[in-house]
Amino acid sequence: MRILVTGATGNVGRIVVERLLEAGATVRALCRNPRQAALPGNIEVVEGDLSRPESLRPALEGVERMHLFPFAATASDVVDLAEEAGVRRVVVMSSGAVTAGRDTGAHLPVERAAEASGMEWTHVRPGEFMLNKLWLWGPSIREERVVRDPFPDLAWHPVHERDIADVATAALLEDGHQGVAYTVNGPEFISRRDQVRAIAEAVGEDIRLEVVTPARAREMYLAQGGFAAANAGFLTGFEEYARDQADRARAGKAAPAPSGPAPTAEKVTGRPARTFGDWVRDHAGDFA
User: Fold this and answer.
1) Edge to edge, what strands does the sheet with 180-184 contain?
2) NAD(P)-binding domain: which residues (predicted)?
3) What's the pTM value of the predicted model, to 2 decimals?
């Protein structure tokens, strides 16, 4: 069984490749620049670009199942080509924003294209990535041992990238996941303040938490570039919620967690979802 992994060099795609190889699958990876892919030598790396659907024809030959990275602009064309080539199952790497009704149009068109096809489909909808904190806080932790954040008591259920990949891999390899959208969060409702504490514990050094205004945070994120700059508006847009949590903290009240447990990878894998502490231990060297 040959499986095509698009987004194979991404943070989740690389792990999907790894898991598929461990399961004995024949893996083909789609990359815009195969020479820079740095993927395992025992897979077939082919050149192609989701923004140019016709470039995918050679990559789709002989493929039975596909891990689809979301690219909304060409979603229908890519899905049509896959079905025409004989792909019978597609797993869409989507977003929890679809579940919450906050999708900006980046993921929903891809989901709809898959659903409108004749292929078996599964959507994987991860929530906030734990990795975001590496991209956001990593530079200041490495350089100054400080985190500057406007909303330290903001809390959510961040998810480990390996849990996301495990769900996608199960949907690719196993039966019983077709026609299902899996929202994947982490097992803990954890504040940013406690996340900083966990990182400090993992690296074995004090990390100072400095509370800044949203305006100042936005300036810093834009200056930092990369993930921080690309998401500056989103990252500083939780003022009302953060203010409510701060008021609760001053009143000695705990921040309210969402009603009921958040859906995690355990529903699919049967294994407990990885905690933020697990993730920090996996990435302690990246913060050092």
Assistant:
1) 44-47, 26-31, 2-5, 65-68, 89-93, 120-126, 180-184
2) 7-173
3) 0.92
